[in-house]
Every structure is written in C-alpha cells, then in structure tokens.
Design brief:
about 240 residues; mainly beta; 6-stranded antiparallel beta sheet; about 50% strand
C-alpha cells in the first residue's frame, strides 16, 4: 500500500521546513529522507483472530534505504523502526475491527506499548464503541489515553547513542485522543480511520552534561484511507 503525506518538520519563529509527497516544495536537509520513505514497501501478515501483526517483511530494506540518505542516523533507525515498532505503527489501520459480533453501543478495548529505546516508552489504551450506520458504512468511535515514560537504565548499553538524554518527563495535561473508523462491509476493510491526539508535557533533557527543561505541546491529526489503486503515478 502506498501513502501520501504532508509534513511540517519544524516551525521556528515562523520559518517552516516542510515536505509534501504531492507538491513541489523547496529542498531541505530532510527531503531525501522523506523521498526514500515514500518509496518504501512493507508487507504485513495479520492474525485474523485478534487482528494483530504477526510478521513484517521489508523492515531491513527500509532502514538501509533511509540510512543511505544520512549514515549517521542508521543506528538510531534500527531502534525506531525495528520489527516491533513497525508492527505497532501499522495496527491502528485496522485495530478498530472487533474480534466478535457487536451491536450498537457495544465497547471493546485494546492496549499498545511502543518502546522507542532512548526516546522513551508510549503506553496507549484504546476504547472503541460501535455507533451504528453512517450511510452505508459502519461507524466506530475511538478514544485513547496515552502515558509516556522516560527511558530507564535497563538495557541502556544496547541502545543507539543520541546527542541528548531524556532524564525526566512530567505530564502537564492528560494525553488523550479521539477519532473514528468507517468500515466498508462490501469491501471488507475500513474506508477511513481518523485520530486527533493532544500531548503536553515537560521534559528534562541533558545535552553536554547540562540539563534544560523543554515544554512539548503537540497536536497531531492522522488520517488513514486505503486505496484500490496506487495514488502515485509511475515515474512521478
């Protein structure tokens, strides 16, 4: 499955570094990285009983391709894009699908733990509610609650070195998310999965033996729309 994306890499004092898969943007230090990401191909094997990802093929090739754009990042990519991470990154595409028959108003829950090594761990609890028909589609409401933990000392020697160390993290507001999934019974897949997530915390970061506090205030919107045809024309 191919994808389209628009990314604002940074916005400092009104100066934005951006990348778009569909529009011509001025080149920046991350352009080659995202072009390599756009051309990546991953194949997932899914367990139909619980909709979990059993196997991912193509992860090593993805790391090699992305690492080729910036060799200094390769060791970090092996942690950020290992098989476990790739599995959990893909599961939200179909995670809202219930494993048993449900009626309107029914709820079911799932949990996800994403370990990003020296960046920390994200634990997310999802609550799904079947809201009934939305036209010809079945609508499922989604709520999430996220808990972040700074990296511990266990296994630290096995992790790639970062130019900074996250020493502590304090939640300033509950990290919550809301969204929906629209299931197309005729095609046997979701037509759309949308999530809005808000995250606000204070991090204590050590750089060069000096500690500084950073406030992270993030609003994220993610929309997944499977397509019957490749949205990227050959040669584009």
């Amino acid at each position: 499955e191919k994808t389209e994306f628009d990314v604002i890499l940074s916005d400092i004092g009104g100066n934005k570094i951006t990348f778009s898969s569909q529009k011509n943007e001025p080149a920046n230090p991350m352009t080659d990285f995202f072009k390599a990401l756009l051309s990546a191909e991953l194949t997932y094997q899914i367990n139909p009983k619980d909709m979990s990802v059993v196997k991912v093929d193509g992860g090593s090739a993805l790391i090699n391709k992305l690492g080729g754009t910036n060799p200094q990042m390769e060791s970090l990519l092996k942690t950020l894009l290992n098989d476990s991470v790739l599995k959990q990154m893909a599961e939200p595409t179909w995670a809202a699908f219930p494993t048993t028959a449900v009626q309107k108003g029914a709820e079911w829950k799932k949990e996800s733990k994403l370990n990003l090594g020296n960046i920390g761990t994200y634990d997310t609890k999802f609550t799904y509610t079947y809201e009934g028909k939305d036209g010809k589609l079945d609508k499922i409401g989604i709520k999430s609650a996220l808990t972040y933990a700074a990296p511990g000392k266990e296994g630290k020697g096995d992790r790639p070195t970062l130019p900074f160390t996250i020493k502590d993290a304090k939640e300033l507001e509950p990290a919550t998310g809301t969204g929906h999934a629209l299931f197309n019974a005729d095609k046997g897949r979701f037509d759309e999965v949308t999530m809005d997530m808000k995250l606000k915390m204070k991090l204590t970061i050590e750089v060069g033996n000096m500690e500084t506090e950073v406030t992270l205030d993030q609003t994220q919107k993610a929309t997944v729309k499977p397509m019957d045809e490749n949205p990227i024309k050959p040669g584009s």
